[in-house]
């Protein structure tokens, strides 16, 4: 079943990846419990069995397995988005209900919970929903599922899931949510990536983090859809790196000024971080005499840009309104990088 001709709504959860196209680019039925397979060494289930029937919808057949090498046969264009994280494979299932819209279920199994989180963070559109199956199950302040216009997206351990009804009705929506609760039931709920946890919620007294604009990523293709630097991989990003792209808005009344953009990157080692900074300075800050060393601020066309190297980490600030603000954000970036290392040492 090739999915290159799916209705555009199927991939609305990939808006930011697709928009750049990488620069091309009636009575309820009881829920049958999910049967998880033996856990992998990283203590995450690596497969599951979906309920056979749920609220009048029935599985049309066994799941289809899509390996990385075949993802472009399943979807055109958006496949690169998943390969930009450490994607292992995809399981695709469909539910049918006579007289109702089909429901598509996509289970993206990733190398780590961080990678699955990154997929959800790519598009915060929709409303946050709580998939806790019982009132006694503690709900977290961390967003783990979003629903909008018939599409439910879920981060659950190392699994990123998409459940979509082609035609949103009240019955279909309830079935989508029930499938989502079944998927999430009993699965681990890890904390967000360390890099995300280390970001300050506020910088000084004037700037606040927009959590709905914070993206966790590994690839410059994803970065360029969150904050465009260049079609070239200026920061030497790869699957062994991790980056948090954050937006800070100024607090206050009236028309808000331009936000400040912050990139915090963690590399496999100090040498890789230093080479990445040199690459960035040589290309992005070409012709700026002050753009040297391990820390600095430079005035460019769209505001003040700052950079700071700290161990395995690199912090970058863009579009700061003045030099003092750029330096303030560099200080907070250094604190975030130090905080990441402390979290990794636990």
Tell me about this structure.
This protein is of the alpha+beta class. Helix content is 27%, strand content 26%. The chain is built from nine helices and 17 strands. The protein has helices at 15-24, 71-74, 79-83, 113-121, 170-184, 194-198, 220-226, 270-283, 323-345, and strands at residues 53-54, 57-59, 64-66, 87-96, 103-110, 127-128, 145-148, 151-156, 159-165, 202-203, 207-209, 215-217, 242-250, 260-266, 295-300, 303-310, 313-320. The strands form two sheets. Strands 1, 2, 3, 4, 5, 6, 7, 8 and 9 form a nine-stranded antiparallel beta sheet that branches. Strands 10, 11, 12, 13, 14, 15, 16 and 17 form an eight-stranded antiparallel beta sheet that branches. Helix 1 (15-24) crosses helix 7. The longest helix has 23 residues, at 323-345. The chain starts with 14 loop residues before the first helix and ends with a helix. Residues 1-41 have low confidence and may be disordered.
């Amino acid at each position: 079943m090739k999915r290159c001709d799916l209705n555009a709504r199927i991939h609305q959860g990939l808006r930011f990846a697709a928009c750049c196209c990488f620069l091309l680019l009636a009575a309820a039925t009881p829920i049958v419990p999910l049967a998880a397979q033996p856990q992998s060494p990283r203590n995450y289930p690596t497969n599951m069995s979906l309920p056979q029937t749920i609220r009048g919808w029935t599985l049309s057949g066994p799941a289809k397995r899509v390996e990385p090498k075949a993802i472009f046969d399943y979807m055109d264009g958006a496949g690169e988005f998943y390969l930009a994280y450490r994607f292992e494979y995809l399981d695709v299932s469909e539910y049918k209900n006579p007289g109702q819209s089909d429901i598509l279920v996509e289970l993206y199994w990733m190398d780590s919970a961080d990678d699955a989180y990154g997929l959800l963070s790519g598009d915060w559109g929709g409303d946050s929903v709580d998939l806790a199956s019982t009132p006694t199950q503690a709900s977290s302040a961390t967003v783990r599922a979003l629903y909008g216009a018939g599409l439910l997206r879920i981060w659950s351990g190392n699994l990123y899931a998409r459940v979509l009804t082609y035609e949103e009705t009240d019955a279909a929506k309830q079935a989508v949510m029930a499938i989502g609760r079944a998927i999430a039931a009993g699965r681990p709920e890890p904390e967000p990536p360390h890099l995300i946890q280390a970001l300050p919620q506020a910088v000084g007294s004037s700037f606040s983090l927009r959590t709905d604009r914070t993206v966790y990523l590994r690839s410059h293709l994803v970065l360029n859809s969150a904050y465009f630097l260049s079609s070239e991989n200026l920061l030497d990003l790869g699957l062994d790196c991790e980056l948090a792209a954050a937006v800070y808005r100024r607090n206050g009344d009236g028309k808000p000024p331009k936000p400040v953009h912050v990139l915090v990157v963690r590399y496999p080692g100090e040498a890789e971080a230093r080479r990445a900074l040199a690459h960035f300075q040589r290309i992005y800050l070409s012709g700026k005499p002050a753009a040297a060393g391990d820390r600095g601020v430079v005035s460019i066309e769209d505001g003040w840009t700052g950079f700071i190297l700290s161990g395995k980490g690199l912090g970058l600030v863009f579009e700061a309104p003045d030099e003092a603000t750029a330096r303030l954000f560099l200080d907070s970036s250094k604190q975030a990088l130090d905080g990441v290392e402390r979290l990794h040492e636990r």
